[in-house]
Automatic annotation (TrEMBL):
Residues 363-593 form the Sigma-54 factor interaction domain. Residues 1-17 have a biased composition (Polar residues). Residues 1-26 are annotated as: Disordered. It comes from the Bacteria. The lineage of its organism: Bacteria, Pseudomonadati, Pseudomonadota, Alphaproteobacteria, Hyphomicrobiales. SUPFAM superfamilies: Homeodomain-like (SSF46689), P-loop containing nucleoside triphosphate hydrolases (SSF52540). Keywords: Activator, ATP-binding, DNA-binding, Nucleotide-binding, Transcription, Transcription regulation, Two-component regulatory system. GO terms for molecular function: ATP binding; sequence-specific DNA binding. This is Transcriptional regulator of acetoin/glycerol metabolism.
Length: 678
């Protein structure tokens, strides 16, 4: 009979069961000895051993099939320092995600007799913290950084068994397959990838048998879940960065094209229209799949060469932020479309919300800035990121919030809107975040769910966000960062999944400089920024809007549409519309209500339109005009053109001097029609 491990280790032998452990150590040890010596009858194996759990017996079988020596004293595989360094770099996202959990647990492990271990998907240890004496003892069996603890290397153990089964596992003392590690107990839980749910690593708590407690399993499972959440948040941030870089491409792909976004490792983190692509290995285009192996020095052409040969592409472009390659976009040719269907739309229709008695909404416009704004809204909905809609009063910012909501996959997702300027500062916190009973004067007796909770699973529209009190901005920032809400007066965390669409007619950058708006919140709410142009900058859209609103108003009042003569139409088109689309709608409604007939001439128009101040006329009017008042676009256009001249046409230097990415610079040069210089 093999010598019992109890006499071969430094630790004291104990015949009493470990507290909370139901197995009999002596019975388990006898069963193991009989197992490895092959002295067990088939019927004994089939009915199981007394003191041996079924999952342990299965692991012993796997260990035996792998040819593991039951007399091994330690894992035979230990990686070199260079290999460990390379492995840590390869698993940088996993190491970073585990940092918070390990830092939080470190003080509690210092004198616990235990060590907390992080491994990669193959069982190689890449991080270990805990009791110094236990860490030192672990070196005897290579339970240390660089040691490999897969079942196929060292047999039954917490790390290896968790990897083999994909489930949390504990292996106590004599349950280990190899003799040399039976003086240890371990509890381990696998860490799952948030994209494809594959196992990417393991969290393990190991130590001498006397540290075993039933809650050890709960601890490692909780740590693994915390790491998975951190991985998910990192993934969302990476996805947002890449989508922003994609949106800033100088030449965006056609709507019908397939799009695949790759991170810096060549892994697919976003795709669209790939179901239409004729590709034999369609599953290879799924989220989480590795499409190719990327290296930092690769060009777009080299990436295209590295793609599967049977994958037909229209192009591959690197996605960069601040000069650093963050990933790439692969453009795949979509289904052919007719000229009619590929023509630029003059309007976008938004269907009524489910369960809401409302009319269909239309966004009318064909000017480049409006088309770009509508495209950004569609992309923002697909990416499910925060959006900041900027524009003057009356331009129709709320329509873009509705447009984003209409692009959500499920039509019945909630849409909740709140105007931050319409509610007093004392009450807006309770309206947004909810409150518990007695949280403040006037709080409801039973408490109340806030707008964030009501919008869970859908879109929350915050109008006039620039008017939010400064003290509540930090509360909003925490809600967005944690994707959870805390009702006022309550510490309970309520997870939420809300796409925030913030709107403002203010220059928030000026508010930041004046100290009335938080800089960190500005960048958090503006993952994608949509600039809705004022009506005076939309060219021929004005005529389309006049006709569209005329028809809509006629249906509303049960009247015939107005018939505008040439002089009236010309005056309406020449007016600068300081109140934008809202003012145009009000004007046509007033004309329809007050006109006795259907015909309208210039004499029927309001005097502010027919005899405007000079600066209320559009350029090109017959009068001598005061120079057009500068707006933000004009200032930005002048600044970019001046920077191009100063840098001699070197667009890389221009982007650096302006503090924007090159894709953003290219897009703005195209929008403003600027001279790129040399």
């Amino acid at each position: 009979m093999l010598t019992s491990y109890f006499s071969s280790r430094k630790s004291a032998r104990s015949d009493t069961p470990t507290p909370g452990f139901h197995n009999n150590e002596r019975a388990t040890m006898r069963a193991w000895e009989q197992y490895v010596e092959g002295r067990l009858e088939t019927e004994e194996i089939e009915r199981g051993f007394a003191g041996v759990r079924p999952e342990i017996l299965k692991s012993w079988d796997r260990s035996s099939d792998w040819g593991i020596s039951a007399l091994s004293d330690a894992t035979p595989t230990k990686l070199t320092a260079d290999h460990v360094k390379s492995l840590s770099q390869k698993n940088q996202s996993l190491v970073s995600a585990a940092q918070a959990a390990f830092s939080r647990l470190a003080p509690h492990l210092a004198e616990s007799g235990a060590i907390l271990i992080l491994t990669d998907k193959n069982g190689a240890i890449i991080e270990a913290i805990g009791d110094p004496q236990t860490i030192d003892a672990g070196r005897d069996i290579q339970l240390e950084i660089g040691g490999v603890w897969a079942e196929g290397v060292i047999g039954t153990n917490g790390i290896g068994t968790a990897l083999s089964t994909g489930k949390a596992a504990y292996v106590h003392a004599s349950e280990h397959f190899c003799l040399g590690i039976k003086a240890w107990t371990c509890a381990a839980a696998p860490i799952f990838d948030p994209l494809d749910k594959s196992v990417v690593g393991v969290v393990d708590l190991s130590g001498p048998p006397n540290i075993f407690r039933p809650h050890n399993m709960a601890l490692v499972v909780a740590a693994a879940r915390e790491i998975e959440i951190a991985l998910y948040e990192d993934l969302r941030e990476e996805r947002t960065i890449l989508l922003e870089a994609f949106i800033d491409l100088p030449t965006p792909p056609d709507n019908a094209d397939g799009v695949v976004l790759l991170n810096r490792h060549g892994r697919i983190i976003y795709s669209r229209n790939t179901d239409r692509i004729p590709f034999p290995r369609a599953q290879q285009l799924g989220i989480g799949q590795i499409l190719l192996t990327m290296r930092p020095e690769m060009t777009g052409g080299q990436l295209a060469e590295a793609l599967p040969r049977e994958l037909v592409t229209k192009g591959v472009e690197l996605l960069k932020t601040e000069g650093e390659t963050r990933g790439a976009v692969v453009i795949l040719p979509g289904q052919s479309v007719s000229k009619k269907s590929s023509a630029r739309p003059s309007s976008v229709k938004i269907a009524p919300r489910v369960g809401v008695n409302e009319d269909e909404i239309q966004i009318v416009g064909n000017c480049p800035k409006m088309l770009e704004a509508m495209d950004f809204a569609r992309r923002a909905a697909e990416a499910n990121v925060t959006v900041l809609v900027q524009g003057e009063t009356g331009v129709g910012k709320e329509l873009f919030a509705r447009l984003i909501h209409s692009h959500h996959t499920e039509r019945d997702t909630p849409y909740v809107a709140i105007n931050c300027a319409a509610i007093s500062g004392d009450l807006i916190g309770g309206e947004l975040f909810g409150h518990v009973a007695g949280a403040f004067t006037g709080a409801l007796r039973d408490g109340k769910a806030g707008k964030f909770e009501l919008a869970n699973g859908g879109v929350l529209c915050l109008d006039e966000i620039g008017d939010m009190p400064l003290e509540l901005q930090s509360y909003l920032l925490r809600t967005l960062e944690q994707r959870a809400v805390y009702r006022i007066g309550c510490n309970r965390r309520r997870p939420i999944d809300v796409q925030l669409v913030a709107m403002t007619n203010r220059n928030l950058r000026l508010d930041i400089e004046e100290g009335s708006f938080r800089r960190d919140l500005f960048y958090r709410i503006g993952a994608i920024v949509i600039d809705v142009p004022p009506l005076r900058e939309r060219g021929k859209d004005i005529e389309q809007l006049i006709d569209h609103i005329n028809q809509t108003v006629a249906r509303k009042f049960g009247r015939e549409p107005l018939i505008l003569d040439d002089s009236a139409r010309a005056a309406l088109c020449a007016y600068r519309w300081p109140g934008n689309v809202r003012e145009l709608r009000n004007t046509i409604e007033r004309l329809r209500l007050l006109s006795p007939g259907d015909h309208v001439s210039v004499s029927d128009l309001p005097t502010e339109i027919t005899i405007p101040d000079d600066d209320m006329l559009l350029p090109g009017d017959h009068r001598t005009l005061i120079p057009e008042r500068l707006n933000l676009d004009a200032i930005e256009s002048v600044a970019i053109q001046r920077a191009i001249e100063l840098e001699g046409g070197n667009l890389s230097k221009v982007a650096t001097s302006l503090g924007i990415s090159r894709p953003t610079l290219y897009r703005k040069i195209r929008i403003y029609g600027l001279d790129r210089g040399k």
